[in-house]
Amino acid sequence: QVQLQQWGAGLLKPSETLSLTCAVYGGSFSGYYWSWIRQPPGKGLEWIGEINHSGGTKYNPSLKSRVTISVDTSKNQFSLNLKSVTAADTAVYYCARGVFGVVFIPYYYYDMDVWGQGTTVTVSS
Amino acid sequence: SSKLTQDPAVSVALGQTVTITCQGDSLRSYYASWYQQKPGQAPLLVIYGRNNRPSGIPDRFSGSNSGNTASLTITGAQAEDEADYYCNSRDSSGSLFGGGTKMTVL
Questions:
Q1: Which of B44, B52, B95, B97 to mutate: most A Cβ within 10 Å?
Q2: What is the pLDDT of residues A20-52, one digit of tens each?
Q3: Which of A2, A73, B54, B85 is most buried per CB count within 10 Å?
């Protein structure tokens, strides 16, 4: 059974860089899309970005200028860097595995079927 | 970029049927996936694709898609179904979530 385990610093000061890593255990790394999602306190889910096993990335346009997602296939890990953080970046951050499929052409589906446990990140001076 | 719109809250009597909807242009190309989130927990996939349930999800959960609208239906809601529900789809920029619907079981 595939499991995602994530870790990283939980307390940052404004202007610092948030760094989180997610490790994939018990399953293949290739053929999937690996995402980061966050949830500010009391608010909804926000997709941050994704990477595939080949290193191709997509980012949320609202965060694109500050986000980098990278992959280390030798370790089955992927990482999130978010630079110049502010209090607005305070959130629970999740990693997740994404799967694409075809319902029937031209309709597709995408789901995130495995999630990490979440990491609480607080930005405070 | 695209947007997915959900009603903020819905309530249902125990054992009754409730439908949660999600609207957005991206749903014309990508069927919605649906996630259940309980307080302090990571989201859990409950519906994906045309109307598929991951292993372990009760068959009282079902999904449908028509045009720019996706729906999640819970037939015979149970107390343990009380949670926040999020739809998800994709557009040219990547993935996106609806704002979430808080479901209360009365």
A1: B95
A2: 999 999 998 889 999 999 999 999 999 999 999
A3: B85
